[in-house]
Amino acid sequence: MSSAPEPSPAPRRRRVGAGTVALIAVLLGLPTVVPLLVPIYARMDPELWGVPFFFWFQFAVIPVAAVCTTLAYRAVVKVEGSPDEVAARAERTARWKDDDGRQS
Fold first, then answer.
1. 42, 87, 89, 100: which is deepest, by most CB within 10 A?
2. How far is the C-alpha of 96 from the C-alpha of 98, rounded, in Å?
């Protein structure tokens, strides 16, 4: 009888806390929802360099959205690891499933 080598167990994912998930949801939701609430900024005053509030507010949301997205990305990387680490972990998991014979 030949003994086949035992497949190594699949790598475990880190557990993500509810606070981290809530933080990421707020960081991504805020710049998405605020521009949809048009009555908040549908007015002319205050003007900035002669530009009505309606327009400059929308332009001001763009860098705020970029900062919020960057912070959300960094929170995910802190929990999940860098994109290279996530890809390597996914590759190991796929290989483990192939070795185990459950998924091909």
1. 89
2. 5
pLDDT in tens, 11-37: 555 666 778 888 888 899 999 998 898
What is the distance between the alpha carbons of residues 10 and 82, in angstroms, rounded to a whole number? 19
Backbone phi and psi for residue 47, each to the nearest 5 degrees, phi listed first: -90, 150
Neighbours of 27 (CB within 10 A): 19
| Mean pLDDT of the region 73-98 | 74
Angle between helices 53-80 and 18-33 (to 10 degrees): 160
Helices marked H in the chain: 18-33, 38-41, 53-80, 83-100
**Beta bridge pairs of residue 43:** none
User: Distance between CA atoms of 46 and 57, rounded to whole angstroms?
Assistant: 10
Q: Which of 74, 65, 76, 57 is nearest to 30 (CA)?
A: 65
